[in-house]
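REVIEWER CHECKLIST
Item 1: Sequence provided? yes
Item 2: Single chain? yes
Item 3: Sequence as submitted:
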Amino acid sequence: MGTIADSADVDAGASIGAGTKVWHLAQVREAARLGENCVVGRGAYIGPGVVLGDNCKVQNYALVYEPAVLGAGVFIGPAVVLTNDVFPRAVTPEGILKTEEDWEKVGVTILEGAAVGARAVCIAPVTIGAWAMVAAGAVVTKDVPDFALVAGVPARRIGWVGKAGQPLVSEGSQWLCPETRDAYIERAGVLRPA
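Item 4: Structure as written out by the authors:
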């Protein structure tokens, strides 16, 4: 089991991987599964049954609602919201307070290595591709391709990023990472390592 701050609220039915740290005032609900070496920041919320792969970071006050699934190495910035209801209502058409049985939860899936910047909102159901980057403050309403850099409201692709997170630079028929010099090839709107 990892390290849990005294003021954190971690349900006994949650699974916390070795080396994982859950900081002050964070809440991890029942049946949540956090991989190894994760960090859950101050005041963050991890919903029932949410899955975090190894080496994920969920920063302060982020809200990760069920049934979200985060792959290994995912970064969730401060105050990010991953929603779970397509047509949210507090009450039924008859005016009765909804219960768990009155709505179908849909989730956000974030693939390996992707990053979601501070205060971004991902409107479920969406998938954020591997190693993609969502800019701070963006509102994601559609799936994001692998390695895509998206920004705006609603979020649109404005470029490509490599595994280091740096925007890629077009050189001839390839895209290159200025940090690692890794090369990528774009075909029909899909980017893959060369």
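Item 5: Key structural point noted by reviewer: The mean pLDDT is 96.
Item 6: Recommendation: ____
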